[in-house]
Amino acid sequence: MSDPLPLLDVSGLEVTFPTDAGDVHAVSGITLAVRRGERVGLAGESGSGKTATAMAISGLLPRSVRTSGSIRLGGRELTGLARRDRRKLCGSHIGMIFQNPQSSLNPALTIGRQIAEPLRLHLGLSRAAARARALELLDEVGMASPARSFEEYPHRFSGGMRQRAMIAIALSCRPELIIADEPTTALDVTIQAQILELLARLCAEHGSALLVITHDLGVLAGLADRILVMYSGRILEEGPVDCIYDRARNPYTQALLAAISRIDRPLETLRPIPGDPPSGLQMAGGCVFHPRCPNAVGICRTEVPVLLPRADPGHRCACHLADQLDGPPLDAGGKS
Amino acid sequence: MAAKSALTAEAERLPLARALAGRRALGRLLIADRTALAGLLIVAIVLAVAVAAPLLAPHDPNAQDVLNQFKPPSAQHLLGTDQFGRDELSRIIIGARISVLTSLAVGAAILVIGVVVGTVSGLAGGLLDGAIMRVVDVLLAFPSVLLALAVAGTLGPGLGHLAVAMTLVWWVDYARLVRGLVLGVKEQQYIESARALGVSGRRLALRHVLPNVAPPIIVLATLQTARLLLALAALSFLGLGVAPPTAEWGAMLNDGKNFLDTAPQLMLYPGLAITITALGFNLLGEGLRDVLDPSLR
After folding, report:
1. Among A34, A91, A144, A261, whose Cα sits 20 to 30 Å from the Cα of B118?
2. Residue A87: which of B188, B191, B200 has the nearest Cβ?
């Protein structure tokens, strides 16, 4: 990272969920940085630890979950803070947008009250001032009639409108960082593009950095400046967005790219990744992806690959075979 | 408590949003629903009588007239007189005041205690939740009327003591229900979202959790009032609560039982008053539940 002081600086983050069956390592020592105003995508399958990472950054993990490592926001270390101080940062410095706008809005409260809430809580605005600001925000996120939307209950809104309301809430206190966890997964395809465009534009206007978490690399194409690919609690590859799309070196990234459905290609070219992501309970030794990797060789089973810089600036990949493999693997149907 | 668990089950699939968004239309829906309308009318009449009792009663309810004992209904005494020649109608009307208003007061007290305890227990979880729920379990293990009888007996006679005893015994139903509802709501994504906005503590409980558990609590409150009325009458019948000659429906039943074979109407009138009022509250509760839960319609 050339920036001397990134906005968000996470290093050596580990998240462990204690369960009856043993500890589940959701995140095993990842390092990531987000600069001011930067848009970063964190991609991976379900169970790869991307949501656990987001929750750890925002401090929303349950008390029973163990975290270690360092999370710095604007140079301030967050991991040692008391829960109460952590909570004050939520909403004011970090805005969250969740996957499902259907369930993320309180059904018993009007949209207006929910947008006004953080304004009153964090900025101490009066009822009238909070209302005026909420109306502005509703207008900014493209609500047709802000005054009417203000009085409405969420169930009257379509999924897209609800997600617009969520964006308005997340942006209300002008946080430096917005974390969007699968912001468009629950939406119609036609709405997805609108919401993504809105999110990107408003973050730029407000000067907020954006961390988008998704399983769909396609979502990040026009949205992110930089992409990190996560698998089983580790980052396997990271780099500028075109680098990841055109010159991905990690077999997992390549497999993810091959799994994007595209309207301009026959369905047969869509390639699923065989097998399931590991549970996090029993971790295989070596590279976390080797049981499902079509190219795996001996060293993959024994040694953990480290993130090493590639030719392109900012491009790093954790794969023992990164130098030998060209393009996507020919046979993605390899058995474990 | 079969009714309670059914309520809890229903509450969990209540489409609360629709129910609450229709708040403005609630009055209209209540009137459209025949059950609710009947309940609403009965409750309104009983409440009006209870509040305006001293104005409505044609005679002094405690004025004895030994020459006119056990008189049948007449123009002067519409419901006749009791064993001391007191006007039965006036006693029923004045009795409404004590029976209904005491039930409502106890109902309000247990509502507040139950909702506070249930919400704290549900939101806090862990040791505190465990401790509170064990207390609730213990209280629920006793038949509530017997427990209230024991507490009231310990405190000594008097309506105030009886009300305190009932409050101490009956709040547990609410606590149970509210805790269950809060546990369900607290896992919802929108509560997580509220936390992600930095909302916590009392603000989270009052502004985000409670509005979502309100409809089933409202229904329970109505049904509970009917149960309290019956319990109050039962405990008064057993000799707790008001001291003679104060008119109270349960106490009037008790007085009347000695003359069951000669003047059965002395038990009939207060019995009917209790039954009709309890019926009114039950109908209102049923109606409210239907109106607040559109999935049942």
Report:
1. A91
2. B200
CA of B63 vs chain A CAs: smallest distance (Å): 54
Query: Which chain A residue lies closest to B22 (C-alpha atoms)?
Result: A153
Is B208–A109 a contact, with Cβ atoms under 8 angstroms apart? Answer: yes
Cβ–Cβ below 8 Å for A153 and B190? no
Q: Which residues of B touch A58 (CB under 8 A)?
A: 196
Number of domains observed in the structure of chain B: 1
Q: pLDDT (tens digit, 9 = 90+) per residue, A171-187?
A: 998 999 999 998 888 78
Task: Look at A104 and B207 and tell me if their CB atoms are within 8 Å.
Answer: no
The CATH number of the domain where B258 resides is what? Answer: 1.10.3720.10
Distances (CA, A) of B20 to A100, A152, B26, B183: 21, 11, 9, 20
ipTM entry: 0.73
CATH of the domain at A244: 3.40.50.300
| Residue B51 within a domain | yes
The average pLDDT across A80-87 equals: 84
Option in B192, B197, B214 nearest A118 (CB): B197
One DSSP character per residue, B137-205 reads HHHHHS-HHHHHHHHHHHH-SSHHHHHHHHHHHHHHHHHHHHHHHHHHHHTSHHHHHHHHTT--HHHII
Instruction: Quote the pTM value.
Output: 0.75
Q: Where are the beta strands (DSSP E) in A44-176?
A: 66-73, 76-77, 94-97
Q: Can you say whether the dihedral through the CA atoms of B260, B261, B263, B264 is positive or negative?
A: positive
Domain count, chain A: 1
| Cα-Cα end-to-end distance for chain A | 36
Pick the closest to residue A10 from A34, A44, A26 (CA basis). Answer: A34
Question: Which structure tokens are listed for B149?
Answer: 């009888």
